[in-house]
Amino acid sequence: MTGVTTLPDRRLLLVHAHPDDESIGTGSTMAHYAATGAHVTLVTCTLGEEGEIHVPALAQLAADQADQLGGYRIAELDAACAALGVTDHRFLGGAGRYRDSGMMGLPTNEHPRAFWQADLDEAAGYLLEVIREIRPQVMVTYDENGFYGHPDHIQAHRVAMRAYDLAAAEGIAPAKVYWTAMPLSVLAAGMDQFVESSDNPFAGIEDVSELPFATPDEQIAARIDATDQHAAKQAALRAHATQIPPTSWLYTIAGSFGGEFMGVEYYTLAKGEKGPGSGPYGWEDDLFAGIADLGPDRAPAAAAGLR
Known about the structure:
Blueprint lengths: L3 E3 L4 E6 L4 H15 L3 E6 L24 H16 L3 E4 L28 H15 L3 E4 L9 H19 L6 E8 H11 L19 E2 L6 E4 L4 H10 L9 H9 L1 H5 E8 L29 E3 L4
Parallel strand pairs: 2-3, 2-5, 3-4, 5-6, 6-7
Antiparallel strand pairs: 1-10, 6-9, 8-9
């Protein structure tokens, strides 16, 4: 650490489970705020060691072979963050502190370093250290179900919310906490688009409300329109080549909806007061909407050269 600088007035903290989650769920939001001068901090809770490998030449990195996928995914995350313009990204407790738990119910859930097994207060303590340093006004993570039920996503939610409570006790909690979400209306449009597709992520689903991550439109709090950043999000997705093959439905639907799909992301508000919005449900168009204490007097001093 070679000096001290003052962080920008607006500071956003995102807590994700694995490398690639940040790009899929919040990539355009991250790129938007980075491009507009906010300080964007990404905390990733595991290295994603149990992920699938869609690059045949790298198959030997798998957990049941060389078990080196996690290290490889650090480089993928570096490239994704560079595409998004994010320079401050960290692993919770340091790289390798917690291991990818795999899907719910698998033996990998019981690994001694599995994030699913992490002591909640210890893990939240690591995140609290970041909150103390950065003093974000806004934090983003998943809902109680981890958006779709992955144990590491659920644990990331628990850790983030526990860290929020610990920060609140110190008087330094973020003013607002958002959870990633997908409106029912948007999912319905996606289902209609994929009816004739051979790569249909909604196959077998007849009613969009059956999807565990479908959120009624009236419960959405914010719609971040970052369509001008959809190319950055797509570049970040391509950086995660081991996890997202070129034939992924993500690219298929992007080809149909373009910037609307890649560039617009939605959130529910879990903590704090909703700011001014628009439309039939009063959706905010800025995660910092309604926050009054944005100014240099509130910005923390932090070590220069943040990674």
